[in-house]
UniProtKB/TrEMBL annotation:
The keyword Ribosomal protein does not apply. InterPro entries: Bact_Transport_Assoc, DUF418. Pfam families: DUF418. The chain crosses the membrane at residues 12-34, 54-76, 88-106, 112-128, 135-155, 199-216, 228-248, 260-284, 304-321, 327-348. Residues 225-366 form the DUF418 domain. This is DUF418 domain-containing protein. Coiled coil: none annotated. Keywords: Membrane, Transmembrane, Transmembrane helix.
Length: 373
């Protein structure tokens, strides 16, 4: 059997994807429920906001993006084994782009359309060596670092500004339970904003895709030793500590919602994401089942989209936007994830993949390839 198709490797990817999905929901929850300024929160919410910035914010989209790049190599490998055209992958990305556009009609934070656009750029690296992918990724990461550094220096010299932007228009729409106005507002205001945002963040996302592609090609030939994974885990944790300390300082006395804080949140996202990935790898290698993460990862797209549906329903059931405390949102996240683990386990005992994944596969390959039993 080709090493790239080994079952233990696939299990690791599913587990890590499910783990990342959990983190993504914690990150997205404040945006789902309506952004607020930290200074307006209660003490419990302020502590949660600090913990989010330390351990969750920017860490999990990093993992998800690297996983997309790894999945790209798997998909291209399978196309080559079956002598299929790369246009199949293009169809897959176009479908993902449409999923993203529809998703933007309900939530402005969607990243699927960005993934689809960056995935098309990734096709330019199909024939390149792994080292070429790595150097291109590092160059893009360096560009992104200096861009964030310039923003940080601007905030320090000219004056910091708040990143959260409470949306009073959306608050009034939700309070009125006006679903049509909700969709129209997202279509006319938030959808263009989401597409514009893709133009701003594509270098970072593409670089993470390339890192994932490099790692998949590299480790297919020679999987890392357990000792190496332990070393990476420990080193990444040590590198994270000096990056986390400024976040604590900023939250204690400066401007926790500002650009300066986000610079350190973003920077620590690079190192902690590596620590998380290495930690999960060690657990899988030591035989830990992590079945909850695994089933979430196997139905990642279905669960990701359903999270938006659930939180949108909560908004219209309560009529509250921008007023639900962060601690209540955190409890809701935990409840949603528990339900999704239970549902995913039940569903995957009956079908090979989730319903959205099945539809995506149908669009990609056609009906003959879409059987879900």
């Amino acid at each position: 059997m080709n090493p790239i198709e080994r079952a233990d490797r696939i299990i690791y990817l599913d587990v890590l994807r499910g783990f990342a999905l959990c983190g993504i929901l914690f990150v997205n929850m404040p945006s789902f429920l309506g952004e607020r300024f930290t200074r307006e929160m209660g003490s419990t919410d302020q502590l949660l906001r600090l913990l989010f910035d330390l351990f969750i914010q920017t860490k999990f989209y990093t993992l998800f993006s690297v996983l997309f790049g790894a999945g790209f190599i798997l998909f291209i490998h399978r196309l080559r084994m079956k002598r299929k055209s790369l246009w199949i992958f293009v169809r897959r990305l176009l479908a993902l782009f449409l999923f993203g556009l529809i998703h933007l009609l309900f939530w402005r934070g969607d990243i699927l359309q960005t993934y689809a656009l960056c995935g098309l750029m990734l096709l330019a690296f199909v024939q390149t060596r792994p080292s070429t992918k790595l150097w291109a990724a590092l160059a893009l990461q360096l560009y992104v670092f200096f861009r964030y550094l310039s923003i940080y220096q601007y905030a320090e010299s000219v004056g910091d500004r708040s990143i959260p932007d409470p949306d009073t228009t959306l608050q009034s729409i939700v309070a009125a339970h006006d679903v049509a106005a909700f969709v129209i507002y997202h279509a006319t205001v938030q959808l263009p904003h989401g597409l514009t945002n893709s133009l701003a963040i594509w270098p970072e996302i593409l670089s993470l895709f390339l890192i994932g592609a490099y790692l998949m090609e590299r480790f297919t030939v020679r999987p890392p030793a357990t000792r190496t994974i332990r070393l990476v885990f420990g080193a990444s944790l040590l590198l994270s500590l000096p990056l986390l300390y400024p976040i604590v300082q900023i939250h204690q006395g400066r401007f926790p919602d500002g650009l300066a804080n986000y610079f350190f949140v973003w920077l620590s996202g690079r190192t902690l994401a590596v620590a998380y990935a290495a930690g999960i790898a060690l657990l899988v290698r030591f035989g830990r089942p992590l079945s909850g993460f695994q089933v979430l990862g196997r139905m990642a797209l279905t669960n990701y989209l359903m999270q938006t549906v659930i939180f949108t329903l909560v908004l219209f059931m309560t009529g509250r936007y921008g007023t639900i405390p962060l601690w209540q949102g955190t409890l809701l996240v935990i409840a949603v994830l528990v339900v999704q683990v239970i549902f995913s386990s039940w569903y995957l005992k009956r079908y090979r993949q989730g319903p959205v994944e099945t539809f995506w596969r149908t669009v990609t390959y056609g009906r003959k390839k879409s059987r879900n039993t």
